[in-house]
Amino acid sequence: MKKSILALSFIFAVLFSCKKPDATPTVPASSVTTQDVVNQYTEVAYQQHNNALTQAYAMEAAIEYFTIYPTEANFDQAKEAWKTARRAYSLLEGYRFYGGPIDNSATDFEAKLNAWPMDESGVDYVDGNANTGIINNLAAFPTITSAIITENDGKDGETNVTTGFHVIEFLLWGQDLSSASAGQRPYTDYVPSTVSGAGKNADRRSQYLHIAAELILDHLLAVTNQWKVEDNENYRAQFTKAANVDASMAKILKGIGTFSKAEFGGERLTTAYETKDEEDEHDCFSDFTTAEIPIWQQSITNIYYGKYKKMDGTLVDGAGIDDLIKVKDAALATATDKLITDSYTASLAVPDPFDNAIAAGDTKIKTVIDAVQDQGDRFVEIATKLGYNIVLE
Amino acid sequence: MRISFLALSVIIFSSIVLINGCNNDKLADADPYQTEVGEALTGGTAGTFADESVNAFNNQIANLSDEEQTDFVVGNSFNRNNWVTAPASTTARDGLGPLLNAQSCSGCHKLDGRGKPPLELESPVSLVFRLSIAGTDEHGFPLPVPNYGDQLQNKAILTAKAEGDVAITYIELPGQYPDGTLYSLRKPAYTFKDLNYGNFPADFMFSPRVAPKMTGAGFFDGLDDATILANADPDDADKDGISGKPNYVWDYFKKQKVLGRIGWKASMASVPNQVAHAFLNDIGITSSVFPNENLWGIQKMSYDTLANGGIPEIDDLTLNRVIYYTSALAMPARKSNWKDETVLKGKKLFEQTGCVKCHIHKMQTGDHPLVSQLSNQTVRIYSDLLLHDMGSGLADERPDVEATGREWRTAPLWGLSYIQTVNQHTFLLHDGRARNIEEAILWHGGEAFSIKQKFKELSKSDRELVLQFLETL
Fold first, then answer.
1. Nearest CB to A160 within list B53, B92, B103
2. Window 135-174 of A, Cβ < 8 Å to B
3. pTM value?
4. How many domains does chain B have?
5. Which end of chain B is more exposed for a tag (fewer CB within 10 A), N or C?
6. B24 and B164 both lie in a single domain
7. Which residues of B touch A262 (CB under 8 A)?
8. Amino acid B10: pLDDT
């Protein structure tokens, strides 16, 4: 199963990399239709999801290799692979908040992939409790299986978080107990040992880590399939139907508007900035949040312009929301270009690591908050201009 | 968006005022089911937001300042996200349990909406059980059950044991309308099981309570006592068969007895009391108001040494922000078809049968203690927020401060029609036994019996109209 998908992914990568960057030339703005923009949205969505899936495979492979050969070097490789997969995943944030493939209430893959905060002591030992978590609880969980992990995940909504990117992050980095660095989990946590204390339950930890990585693949694959072009029954097929394009366009704008204002600017940055609680950051174990912040903005930018630069440098480009707005209100289009650029510039300026910036109340965070919240309101304005009545969450 | 909607409403409603002002008599003739100015603005001009989507219950009221906006956003984060077992890296969010019903507010109040009973024989999630033995404590609250406390926590963190569980079964009670139409109501039966801290004593009492929607509660705090008491008639002095009794309860913030407004028996003083109480009892989070974990007797001995998430586990600033968030949630406007003729006919029938005697449709807020925008608003709660004897069928036989085992606070009907959209179910009443609005009406007894009878005597098509009206609230 996994192998064939991996192969498929490579075929896709090869196929698309054969195309020249200008294979899909930008259509002159004046002739761009809503249908064009929606079509391009789904193409960029597919490309970005497929990339996230590909990188998740690479992460899973690196993790599997590390669990078989648990060395410091392989541990570092696994962590690097997590970061790469995480970067690719973060580009998908703009596809939320309209009940689409990633966060519709029936499957809610977002909660399975990205729930936060996670129940650290429900998974493994924590500072002050060496024997807690599914990994260390042999009595209740004699063997670690994906059934156990999924059964204990997301019980009662987004609770008891026992799988997803943040769980893998916790299992690779461990708790971040020092402001000077990220979490310092030793690779020896994964080295079985007869010495008392060292590497306790290493085999079970390895199993858990690998299963959690496999679950990411299962969930991401299911989401990606909804954006594939071949399937007549899938979400993309429905989304791009002529009868649905207006509703789809409203969803697109509601999605990026809500992500920008309520999630990015509100939940993630305002809450951290206001509480000044160091670890009220999303990648609190790896201290990777600062690197991710510009990617959240990039996710919005890519959707707005209908453009995505692939890892190999080729460009997926086509009709964007900007093309529709240029015709309706050139001044608004120009102002929006500036707002998006400013948001990105501000997001690049957030100091690293984010936890120290939070504790210091760095006003550069506030600059991003203001920019992306304005940006969220701007998408509502744009929607109104295009004739859609949207309400942000 | 908010502003444009408001502006639009103002325009629409001022035109109605204008028309009304000019030809009042003519309009009354032409429209026997007259609409009212601002009728669709459930939470008043400031407290209403038109949204018929799944997010209908989690919009903010209009015109928040930047600072209020921040309180709202941060409050929402701590309302929505889960709390985790201490110790954890996310120190602001740890301290869960040891005993609990849910990991977050939204665990039961999904999208700030309403909970539901579990499927038969499954473990309840958004339905809690209040427990007590005979007698009252120094504040008048029911006495807790030894070794359990006043609520059954059916979940626990890994290092503790849940108190126990409940199995629910239902029996069907067939009934018939005077016109011959058959119906069936389901009555729940509860079996407590897997009790980990000893058997319940003989005088043990319990009351099942579904998580009500959070949205709207903030408005209740803005009503002056006199406004609520204007409808009170505890001894039925006017002999209309309807009492309306206030429940005076202890306010943990003000340290005095006040008129209770919140909860199925109005046994909670205010939103701040409710939020702090729920953090402790439902999630196991201590606060400056409730500084001790909800551990009783042998639980205390077993778990006192477990790590906590700070003293207290939620700081005052964060607690106040969650309180603010809850208070500043906007009510969804009436459904867009509120002016349809069938709906207006249903409204008339709802009035004529006497439902409005308790489901009072319009009140005026005074000075809101927390959210100034909600002061002096005409709000359409469809409740008097007072206690009424609802008969033996609904009785839990568990007194709660001044509420008897047969009394319940009139359920506010506003937002009723959005539960299905937001929470994907239509279960109603305190324990979710009613599977839809019609069944909820048919469960009415006690003081409401004769009014329920009037509803039953309506023709089938008229009953449909009443339900159609309720489907727009």
1. B103
2. 137, 156-161
3. 0.85
4. 2
5. N
6. no
7. 73
8. 42
